[in-house]
Specification:
about 40% helix; 3-stranded parallel sheet; alpha/beta; single chain; 6-stranded parallel sheet; globular; about 290 residues
Length: about 290
């Protein structure tokens, strides 16, 4: 049976270290500040935003929520972002997706100061990641959390075959870059990939972020593989499941993340950790 990759336990360790770093910054007169812009009243976004605020406050950060109505214009949203860009007490800016359809989310992401881009989605930061630029810049939080888990559980990366199921710019593509930068051999696949199970059975590390409940069964997994399930799906009966059929795959895999309790907690922990990174880097830049 597979070793469980416990995201909740690891997130607690990461958060404890993050809190220590915050205390050291406060001794220098700096309180890390994160601001979330929420447009409209999407229920899932409301829940996610509240959980981030709660975690930030518990760690001792400043957390600000800019709650805007669904009728907000592009110009009004631009003004809100520019205000936060110029606020020296805010080190991290996050615009909660999804935005209402009439708003241009790409333009808004591009407007965020790259030095405050806690999600790691600004083209400048994405370009640095893909070019494996050395130095300080943020990366997408879910891939960052996955990399932290792999390192913590001593999963080899160099020369390993990694298959990612999913093509999103939020998770799959930045994770591909992070893994390539560690000398892994990475294949991106999707739900429509021809003979998907044949591809996934070749993976030493299998990451599934396709948004399809229980897509990956035991016969699609290489024995002993490390399986990272990014999916969070609510079934009709209210049950939360991942993109991996956990009960069958855990009998084949070497390591596996549960859902819930795997990647999810590490995403929030990585967001908090990266907010502190941005505060520290800002302090170094500004003396």
């Amino acid at each position: 049976m597979a070793t469980l990759i416990d995201g909740r336990a690891l997130a607690k360790e990461v958060n404890a270290h993050t809190k220590q770093r915050i205390e050291k910054l406060k001794e220098k007169g700096v309180t890390p500040g994160i601001a979330t812009i929420l447009v409209g009243d999407d229920p899932a976004s409301q829940i996610y935003t509240r959980s981030k605020e709660k975690k930030a406050h518990s760690l001792g950060m400043k957390s600000v929520r800019e709650q805007l109505p669904a009728s907000t214009t592009q110009a009004e949203l631009v003004q809100a972002v520019e205000h936060l860009n110029s606020d020296p007490t805010i080190h991290a800016i996050l615009v909660q997706e999804p935005l209402p359809n009439h708003l241009d989310d790409t333009a808004i992401v591009n407007l965020i100061d790259p030095l405050k881009d806690v999600d790691g989605f600004h083209p400048i930061n994405v370009g640095k990641l893909y070019n494996n630029v050395q130095g300080n810049y943020p990366v997408a939080c879910t891939p960052r959390g996955i990399m932290t888990m792999l390192r913590h559980y001593h999963v080899p990366l160099a020369s390993q075959d990694v298959v990612i199921v999913g093509r999103s710019t939020l998770v799959s593509r930045p994770l591909q870059a992070l893994l390539i930068n560690e000398d892994a051999t990475v294949t991106i696949t999707g739900r429509r990939t021809k003979d998907l199970a044949k591809r996934t059975r070749e993976a030493d590390i299998l990451v599934v972020a396709a948004g399809v409940p229980n897509l990956i069964k035991a016969d699609a997994v290489k024995p002993g593989a490390t399986v990272i399930d990014v999916g969070i799906n609510r079934l009709d009966d209210g049950t939360i499941v991942g993109d991996v059929d956990f009960e069958s795959v855990k009998e084949v895999a070497g390591m596996i993340t549960p859902v819930p309790g795997g990647v999810g907690p590490m995403t929030i922990a990585s967001l908090m950790e990266q907010t502190v990174d941005l505060a520290e880097w800002s302090t170094e830049i500004n003396g």
